[in-house]
Amino acid sequence: MKTLKIAIQKSGRLNEKSVELLKNCGLNFENYKSSLISPVSNFPLEILFLRDDDIPEYVQDGIADLGIVGENVIEETEVTVSYLQRLGFGKCSLKIAITNNSDIKELTDLEGRSIATTYPVILGKFLQKQNIHADIRTISGSVEISPGLGLSDAICDLVSTGGTLKSNGLKPFADVMASEAILIGSKGSEHNEMVQELMQRIQSVLRAKETKYVVLNVEKANLSNVLALLPGVKSPSVLPLAEEGWVAVHTVIPERDFWDRISQLKQAGAQGIVVMPIEKIIL
Ligand code: ATP
Ligand code: MG
After folding, report:
1. Hey, whose CA ends up nearest to atom 23 of ligand 1?
2. What global pTM score does this model have?
3. How far apart are CA 103 and CA 9, in angstroms?
4. Which candidate, 92, 115, 201, 232, has a CA 20 to 30 Å from the CA of 216?
5. Ligand 1 pocket test: which of 86, 92, 164 has the largest number of ligand atoms within 8 Å of its C-beta?
6. pLDDT tens-digit series, residues 17-56
7. How does DSSP assign the chain, residue by residue?
8. Backbone angles phi, psi at 28, to 5 degrees
9. What integer pLDDT is reported at residue 257 of this predicted model?
10. Could you tell me which residue ranges the ATP phosphoribosyltransferase catalytic domain spans (predicted)?
């Protein structure tokens, strides 16, 4: 059987979460900072640790079958790869930002202005769509300081909390693209049996992350009201308690409805609500 290769970021914002995801998929590998390739002992897979900029091309060229990288990097490198799975971490957004005292008020005010960025391709396409002609200044890093240095009128950079912008006297002005980490594969790799197996494992980990296992006690008289609030993977389990007239309900609920549901459940008569993390959900 051919050993697959997956490229992940060697160090940086996506490294830790990428390693964690693969480990949660039950893959055993050493995560030495010094090694560039790490074999997985219990799956036909090798992990390549790379600069994130190189990952899309490695995957496009088939040097790696799979990769985990930010959507922003994929779009910027304009590669042809298969988008296999959004991973829900590394969320950020590419924004145009201006100085706090800037005279730029609307997008059209960017006409003829200079914008510093490390994302000239994405920014170029965005401006073209808006029919704005601006001078894109491509620099390789520390974009936030360029307006202060008089190098540009605006910047286009990745933002998550906005703290870096603020501390450099900048404010967000326009959203260019939203991004998160994505599992990509070489074209056609999605048909590979081992890729499918790995994707299933990844999906079961992601699904589990989105849901909680909930156990609660309720008086039989209130059971139907409580059940009406619980979707469950298939349907909730209802087990008798030692105390006459009471049952325990076991189910899973989506994290996003969590707090809403918990208060509704309490109102409906649920007691002793226990919420537990789920490791994997295999459908
Ligand atoms: P490398 O050394 O691998 O080239 P890098 O310095 O280019 O790393 P990082 O800063 O580690 O990249 O960011 C990696 C990815 O994390 C980004 O491409 C983006 O998808 C995501 N990300 C999430 N939040 C942010 C943020 N606030 N700023 C920058 N990137 C972010
Ligand atoms: Mg990089």
Report:
1. 90
2. 0.90
3. 39
4. 201
5. 92
6. 999 999 999 999 998 778 899 999 999 999 999 999 999 9
7. -PPEEEEEESSSTTHHHHHHHHHHTT------TT-SEEE-TTSSEEEEEE-GGGHHHHHHTTSSSEEEEEHHHHHHHT---EEEEE-S-S-EEEEEEEETT----SGGGGTT-EEEES-HHHHHHHHHHTT---EEEE-SS-GGGTTTTTS-SEEEEEESSSHHHHHTTEEEEEEEEEE-EEEEE-TTGGGSHHHHHHHHHHHHHHHHHHEEEEEEEEEGGGHHHHHTT---SS--EEEE-SSTTEEEEEEEEEGGGHHHHHHHHHHTT-EEEEEEE-S----
8. -100, 120
9. 77
10. 51-203
Residue type, 48: L
Query: Residue 164 — φ and ψ, nearest 5°?
Result: -65, -40
Instruction: Tell me the C-alpha distance between 102 and 39, whole Å.
Output: 52
Q: Alpha-carbon torsion 57, 86, 129, 119, what sign? A: negative
Pocket test for ligand 1, best of 8, 36, 87, 158 (most atoms within 8 A of CB): 158
